[in-house]
């Protein structure tokens, strides 16, 4: 079939349509295309009328520039002279004039969120909005500590400033409903993985990794914000914008007061010893009636963590208090959900906390694989007390007849009348019976490394193919 462009181009949900916000585009005069605009910006012509000087713009000053031939607009705290751009603007002059002499951030977000205005209007930059003089003082000298925009670099010791990367800073802007905290990292390789944002009640904390340093923003916000927030990164300039939603649409006089280590740049080696340990996220529960409701933006991650009292790492985790922080990386792993396609028999071999990857597998397999006939879990532990979620597993097996669970203990009390021992050919050959001779099978295995390695060898001896085995390795 030929793909013939229809009348309704751009397609109803295409980026072009979304981007234009359903507004009709205004025919541009000849010589006013995007390419012409780019050519003009590169021509070296003074587009701001300030001969390259950047100024601080007061609200009063901004208001004065509200005519077509003298039109300044503020977007996220930066002021642009958009008069030279008027004739090149696909949405037309009237649309730009809606924000003339004022803060156009909200309007811009509604209509042009996708536009890379920083680069498009680079040559039109007049400067940034002025910060009220009263709050430019170093907060350490002030009784009533408030934050309103950038704090001076003098808060950092000279050594850090000299030895560190070019010093980051931050700023904030507001609209009626949003507060944007912008972090200028001065690094072009910044991406979303470099930033961790936490906020709880009125305490806001953002940790940005900049090469070997951590840049911290830690603020007690002056007003309440909603739980929801978004983060975006403008990689080309190394800027991070964290957009918070105000609880009440009022104007904030100041951002808040500094909390511990606010606006400081700490060498990562001094931020404590960095320890990295992989953990598999689990669900809130195995049983659907106990499942947590799915929250917007998946704000909750559940981990099942075993504390080894003589260990180095988990006692530290055990000592964490509500309000403390850990950094969480993006997920890693190679398990593909496509392995479940047309699956009929699923066997799970878990030892100790090696049970954790099985949690979501069980949840998913029992609800989302129509072809599934049988799931069997063999769960190895030392003692009965070590069996994680035993009663949930028993309840689930009772509720769903496709699931069988067998517990195997290596150090049971004498009264234990279940299976005993370690993973072995005898235990496996009895357990791994396929439903039908040629049924599609998957065996997942996870536990201490030697357990998993031995298990994989035994499975191969029992003629399971590579595709039929998935081992989780820490
Ligand atoms: P554990 O309680 O020490 O051991 C659980 C069971 O496995 C016990 O019955 C134990 O028998 C047996 N076992 C231990 N080593 C064995 C070996 N070499 N051969 C045969 N059986 C053996 O387990 P844990 O402390 O919870 O540790 C679980 C391990 O799983 C950790 O190493 C963790 O890193 C790993 N894990 C990996 C992932 C992943 O890769 N995604 C996820 C979760 C956990 P004994 O009584 O003889 O010790």
From TrEMBL:
Q: Is the keyword Transmembrane helix in the record?
A: no
- UniProt biased composition (Polar residues): 1-18
According to the UniProt entry, the coiled-coil residues are none
Q: Does the keyword Ribosomal protein apply?
A: no
Enumerate the InterPro entries for this protein: Cbr1-like_FAD-bd_dom (IPR008333), CS_dom (IPR007052), Cyt_B5-like_heme/steroid-bd (IPR001199), Cyt_B5-like_heme/steroid_sf (IPR036400), Cyt_B5_heme-BS (IPR018506), Cytochrome_b5/Flavoprotein_Rdt (IPR051872), Flavoprot_Pyr_Nucl_cyt_Rdtase (IPR001709), FNR_nucleotide-bd (IPR039261)
Q: Which UniProt keywords apply?
A: FAD, Flavoprotein, Heme, Iron, Metal-binding, NAD, Oxidoreductase
This enzyme catalyses: 2 Fe(III)-[cytochrome b5] + NADH = 2 Fe(II)-[cytochrome b5] + NAD(+) + H(+)
Instruction: Look up the EC number in the record and give it.
Output: 1.6.2.2
Q: What is this protein's name? A: Cytochrome b5 reductase 4
* SUPFAM superfamilies reported for this sequence: Cytochrome b5-like heme/steroid binding domain, Ferredoxin reductase-like, C-terminal NADP-linked domain, HSP20-like chaperones, Riboflavin synthase domain-like
Top EC group: oxidoreductase
Q: Where is this region: Disordered?
A: 1-27
The taxonomy runs: Eukaryota, Metazoa, Chordata, Craniata, Vertebrata
Q: Which organism is it from?
A: Piliocolobus tephrosceles (Ugandan red Colobus)
Identify which cofactors the protein needs according to its UniProt entry: FAD
User: Corresponding gene?
Assistant: LOC111538039
Q: Which GO terms describe its cellular component?
A: endoplasmic reticulum
């Amino acid at each position: 079939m030929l793909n013939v462009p229809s009348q309704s181009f751009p397609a109803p949900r295409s980026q072009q349509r979304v981007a234009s916000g359903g507004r009709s585009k205004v025919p541009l005069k000849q010589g006013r295309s995007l390419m012409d605009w780019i050519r003009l910006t590169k021509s070296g012509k003074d587009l701001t009328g300030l001969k390259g000087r950047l100024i601080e713009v007061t609200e009063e000053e901004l208001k004065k520039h509200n005519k077509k031939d003298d039109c300044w607009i503020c977007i996220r705290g930066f002021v642009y002279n958009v008069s030279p751009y008027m004739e090149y603007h696909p949405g037309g002059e009237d649309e730009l004039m809606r924000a003339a002499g004022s803060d156009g951030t909200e309007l811009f977000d509604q209509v042009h969120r996708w536009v890379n205005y920083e680069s498009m209007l680079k040559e039109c930059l007049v400067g940034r909005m002025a910060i009220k003089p009263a709050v430019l003082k170093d907060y350490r000298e002030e009784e009533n500590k408030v934050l309103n925009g950038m704090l001076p670099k003098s808060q950092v010791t000279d050594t850090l400033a000299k030895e560190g990367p070019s010093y980051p800073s931050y700023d904030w802007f507001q609209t009626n409903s949003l507060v944007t905290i912008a972090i200028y990292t001065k690094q072009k390789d910044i991406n979303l993985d470099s930033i961790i944002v936490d906020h709880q009640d009125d305490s806001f904390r953002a940790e940005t990794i900049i090469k070997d340093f951590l840049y911290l923003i830690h603020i007690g916000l002056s007003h309440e914000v909603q739980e929801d927030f978004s983060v975006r990164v403008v990689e080309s300039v190394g800027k991070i914008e964290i957009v918070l939603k105000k609880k009440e649409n009022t104007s904030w006089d100041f951002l808040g007061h500094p909390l511990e280590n606010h606006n400081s740049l700490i060498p990562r080696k001094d931020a404590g010893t960095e320890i990295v340990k992989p953990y598999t996220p689990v669900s809130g529960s195995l049983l659907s009636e106990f499942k947590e409701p799915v929250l917007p933006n998946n704000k909750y991650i559940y981990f099942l963590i075993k504390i080894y009292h003589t260990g180095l790492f988990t006692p530290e985790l055990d000592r964490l208090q509500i309000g403390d922080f850990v950094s969480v990386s993006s997920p890693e792993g190679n398990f593909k959900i496509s392995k479940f396609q047309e699956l009929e028999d699923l066997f799970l071999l878990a030892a100790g906390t090696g049970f954790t990857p099985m949690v979501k597998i069980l949840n998913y397999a029992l609800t989302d694989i129509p072809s599934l006939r049988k799931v069997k879990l063999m769960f190895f532990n030392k003692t009965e007390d070590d069996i994680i979620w035993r009663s949930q597993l028993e309840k689930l097996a009772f509720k769903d007849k496709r699931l069988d669970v067998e517990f195997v203990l290596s150090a049971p009390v004498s009264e234990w009348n279940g299976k005993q021992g370690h993973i072995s050919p005898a235990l496996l050959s009895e357990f791994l019976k396929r439903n039908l001779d040629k049924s599609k099978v998957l065996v997942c295995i996870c536990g201490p490394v030697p357990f998993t390695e031995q298990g994989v060898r035994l499975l191969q001896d029992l003629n399971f193919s590579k595709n039929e085995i998935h081992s989780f390795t820490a």
